[in-house]
Specification:
The chain is an alpha+beta fold. It has a single domain, classed as CBS-domain. It is elongated and about 55 Å long. A two-stranded antiparallel ribbon has the order 1-2. The chain contains 5 helices and 6 strands, in the order αββαααββαββ.
Amino acid sequence: MRIKDLMKHPVHIVKPRDSIAHAREILEQHRINQLPVVVNGAVVGIVTDRDLRDAFPSVFDSPGFTGPSHKPAREPEKILVEEVMSAKAFTVGPDEPLAEAARLMRQERIGALPIVERDKLVGIITRADILDAFVVLEQAGGGTPGAGPATPSKAGKSSKVP
Protein backbone atom coordinates (compact mmCIF):
# COMPACT_ATOMS: atom_id res chain seq x y z
CA MET A 1 0.00 0.00 0.00
CA ARG A 2 1.32 3.41 -0.94
CA ILE A 3 0.87 6.70 0.89
CA LYS A 4 -1.21 8.08 -1.98
CA ASP A 5 -3.78 5.33 -1.33
CA LEU A 6 -4.60 6.80 2.10
CA MET A 7 -3.54 10.43 2.10
CA LYS A 8 -6.19 13.09 2.55
CA HIS A 9 -6.55 15.90 0.05
CA PRO A 10 -7.24 18.72 -0.28
CA VAL A 11 -5.43 19.71 2.89
CA HIS A 12 -6.48 22.39 5.36
CA ILE A 13 -3.55 24.81 5.66
CA VAL A 14 -2.47 28.08 7.22
CA LYS A 15 0.08 30.67 6.20
CA PRO A 16 2.93 31.88 8.44
CA ARG A 17 1.35 35.33 8.90
CA ASP A 18 -2.09 33.97 9.88
CA SER A 19 -3.04 34.41 13.52
CA ILE A 20 -3.05 31.50 15.92
CA ALA A 21 -6.73 32.31 16.57
CA HIS A 22 -7.42 31.60 12.88
CA ALA A 23 -5.40 28.37 13.02
CA ARG A 24 -7.29 27.23 16.11
CA GLU A 25 -10.63 27.91 14.39
CA ILE A 26 -9.62 25.67 11.49
CA LEU A 27 -8.50 22.86 13.80
CA GLU A 28 -11.73 23.01 15.79
CA GLN A 29 -14.01 23.37 12.76
CA HIS A 30 -12.51 20.37 10.96
CA ARG A 31 -11.67 18.34 14.08
CA ILE A 32 -8.03 17.92 13.11
CA ASN A 33 -4.79 18.20 15.08
CA GLN A 34 -2.19 19.44 12.58
CA LEU A 35 -2.01 22.13 9.93
CA PRO A 36 0.76 22.40 7.36
CA VAL A 37 2.07 25.94 7.08
CA VAL A 38 2.32 26.75 3.39
CA VAL A 39 3.71 29.53 1.20
CA ASN A 40 3.01 29.35 -2.55
CA GLY A 41 2.16 25.65 -2.27
CA ALA A 42 5.41 24.74 -0.47
CA VAL A 43 5.45 23.43 3.10
CA VAL A 44 7.46 25.74 5.38
CA GLY A 45 6.37 24.25 8.69
CA ILE A 46 3.59 22.61 10.64
CA VAL A 47 1.50 23.82 13.55
CA THR A 48 -0.26 21.44 15.91
CA ASP A 49 -3.07 21.70 18.40
CA ARG A 50 -0.43 21.41 21.13
CA ASP A 51 1.55 24.36 19.69
CA LEU A 52 -1.62 26.44 19.80
CA ARG A 53 -2.65 25.29 23.29
CA ASP A 54 0.78 26.24 24.58
CA ALA A 55 0.57 29.66 22.87
CA PHE A 56 -2.96 30.56 23.96
CA PRO A 57 -3.16 32.65 27.11
CA SER A 58 -3.88 30.81 30.31
CA VAL A 59 -6.76 31.80 32.56
CA PHE A 60 -4.01 32.93 34.94
CA ASP A 61 -2.87 35.45 32.33
CA SER A 62 -6.32 36.99 31.99
CA PRO A 63 -6.88 40.62 33.01
CA GLY A 64 -9.05 39.62 35.99
CA PHE A 65 -6.39 37.43 37.61
CA THR A 66 -4.33 39.23 40.23
CA GLY A 67 -2.09 36.44 41.47
CA PRO A 68 1.67 36.78 42.00
CA SER A 69 2.63 35.67 38.48
CA HIS A 70 0.16 37.85 36.59
CA LYS A 71 1.48 39.24 33.37
CA PRO A 72 -0.57 40.69 30.55
CA ALA A 73 -1.18 38.12 27.81
CA ARG A 74 -0.95 38.81 24.12
CA GLU A 75 -4.18 38.42 22.24
CA PRO A 76 -4.34 35.26 20.08
CA GLU A 77 -5.39 37.43 17.13
CA LYS A 78 -2.00 39.17 17.36
CA ILE A 79 0.20 36.08 17.65
CA LEU A 80 1.31 34.76 14.28
CA VAL A 81 1.49 31.09 13.28
CA GLU A 82 5.16 31.56 12.36
CA GLU A 83 5.91 32.35 16.02
CA VAL A 84 4.66 28.99 17.30
CA MET A 85 4.98 26.55 14.37
CA SER A 86 7.62 23.89 13.97
CA ALA A 87 9.77 25.08 11.08
CA LYS A 88 11.14 21.58 10.59
CA ALA A 89 8.30 19.68 8.97
CA PHE A 90 9.01 16.09 7.99
CA THR A 91 7.46 15.19 4.66
CA VAL A 92 7.09 12.14 2.44
CA GLY A 93 6.17 11.55 -1.18
CA PRO A 94 2.88 10.03 -2.34
CA ASP A 95 4.52 7.01 -3.98
CA GLU A 96 6.44 5.91 -0.87
CA PRO A 97 5.27 2.81 1.01
CA LEU A 98 2.86 3.39 3.86
CA ALA A 99 5.35 1.65 6.14
CA GLU A 100 7.81 4.52 5.53
CA ALA A 101 5.28 7.06 6.82
CA ALA A 102 4.61 4.88 9.87
CA ARG A 103 8.34 4.47 10.54
CA LEU A 104 9.01 8.21 10.27
CA MET A 105 6.05 9.15 12.48
CA ARG A 106 7.16 6.65 15.12
CA GLN A 107 10.82 7.69 14.95
CA GLU A 108 10.09 11.41 15.17
CA ARG A 109 7.08 11.06 17.50
CA ILE A 110 4.79 13.07 15.26
CA GLY A 111 1.13 12.64 14.41
CA ALA A 112 1.02 13.67 10.76
CA LEU A 113 3.12 14.03 7.65
CA PRO A 114 2.50 16.47 4.83
CA ILE A 115 2.74 14.71 1.46
CA VAL A 116 4.88 16.62 -1.02
CA GLU A 117 5.39 16.08 -4.74
CA ARG A 118 7.67 18.34 -6.80
CA ASP A 119 8.05 20.63 -3.75
CA LYS A 120 4.28 21.21 -3.52
CA LEU A 121 1.84 20.01 -0.86
CA VAL A 122 -0.48 17.37 -2.34
CA GLY A 123 -1.92 15.70 0.78
CA ILE A 124 -1.49 14.73 4.41
CA ILE A 125 -1.42 11.44 6.25
CA THR A 126 -2.06 11.07 9.97
CA ARG A 127 -1.45 8.45 12.61
CA ALA A 128 -5.18 7.67 12.49
CA ASP A 129 -4.97 7.00 8.74
CA ILE A 130 -2.20 4.47 9.32
CA LEU A 131 -4.11 2.79 12.14
CA ASP A 132 -7.17 2.62 9.86
CA ALA A 133 -5.04 0.82 7.26
CA PHE A 134 -4.01 -1.82 9.79
CA VAL A 135 -7.64 -2.36 10.80
CA VAL A 136 -8.70 -2.74 7.17
CA LEU A 137 -5.88 -5.16 6.44
CA GLU A 138 -6.79 -7.23 9.48
CA GLN A 139 -10.43 -7.36 8.37
CA ALA A 140 -9.35 -8.28 4.84
CA GLY A 141 -7.44 -11.31 6.06
CA GLY A 142 -4.18 -10.06 7.45
CA GLY A 143 -1.01 -8.93 5.84
CA THR A 144 1.05 -5.84 6.28
CA PRO A 145 0.65 -2.38 4.78
CA GLY A 146 2.14 -2.41 1.34
CA ALA A 147 1.27 -6.06 0.78
CA GLY A 148 -2.22 -5.74 -0.64
CA PRO A 149 -4.66 -3.47 -2.42
CA ALA A 150 -7.19 -3.05 0.42
CA THR A 151 -7.90 0.51 1.53
CA PRO A 152 -10.36 1.97 4.03
CA SER A 153 -13.60 3.48 2.81
CA LYS A 154 -15.47 6.24 4.64
CA ALA A 155 -17.58 3.60 6.41
CA GLY A 156 -14.47 1.89 7.76
CA LYS A 157 -14.90 -1.24 5.63
CA SER A 158 -12.36 -2.38 3.12
CA SER A 159 -12.68 -1.76 -0.55
CA LYS A 160 -10.38 -2.67 -3.38
CA VAL A 161 -8.22 -0.10 -5.11
CA PRO A 162 -8.51 -0.44 -8.89
